[in-house]
């Protein structure tokens, strides 16, 4: 039996400042229940709390814990919920730059040393950009239409070089086309720096707006369709603007670069090589290679084409690691075997997962750029 004198007094009633082992009988607090000793009451209280804890744990196991976990996963790990919170998340870096860094850049005249020094408000609020490039008639516009599940305004598809402009596909109030001058002069769009490439380029640049309720993917992404890369110096001279410089700007500001190849056009022309070199070492992690129209090849032809493509890429990409090449069919409605259909569906799911990850990585990239400015 525990000695009652050594058990600490519980505080059910107000206790004087010096109440305790040295206090008198009148000052010492009394137990709230008559006839129950201190240790016995503590034991009964602990048993009662243990029973309550068991009932709470049983209730949580029966469904409360599942509901709580579902709410946590829905709030923190839901992809749709995270995408909706990204614009609000970028308000803090924008405020830090405008209030702290931008006045310092103006004081030191930083724009005289670095032409893209200023980070505008459109840089923080614009949606992630996906750049699609390749040689002519490789399926660039068709791939964008498949990802959008709709055709953007001004789309033309054919075996000849049809896309002769840089087209920025974005979300808007209605389906319409905007000239490049309007896009570059709009401060809410991230294309202001493209004005340095001259009016000849702005004539070859336009925007295609589509309602976000009709094309949900445009609520968190924007796409850029590019002209088909031609072969020969005559086409390079006839463009009348710095094609490689424009491609390098889009690649630097894009969050994902999709490079398409045709099984019948595996040779890399001089202009295409310069475009891939213009991507730069900073953009190597953004590049995803896609071998389009792969359903026209059997297994042996696919192995030969894959090897030839790797040999061609080895001349351009200075990397010891072999890049992954996605295989894509020219159309979704094809008469394929069950094995081939499963394979192409898996490849398409992996590529769509890359696109789904772009908005999440975009926030990290912009914070990294802001940190690079500080460094």
TrEMBL record:
Domain Dynamin-type G, chain residue ranges per copy: 124-364
GO molecular function terms noted in the UniProt entry: GTP binding
Protein name: Ehd1 protein
Species of origin: Symbiodinium natans
Lineage: Eukaryota, Sar, Alveolata, Dinophyceae, Suessiales
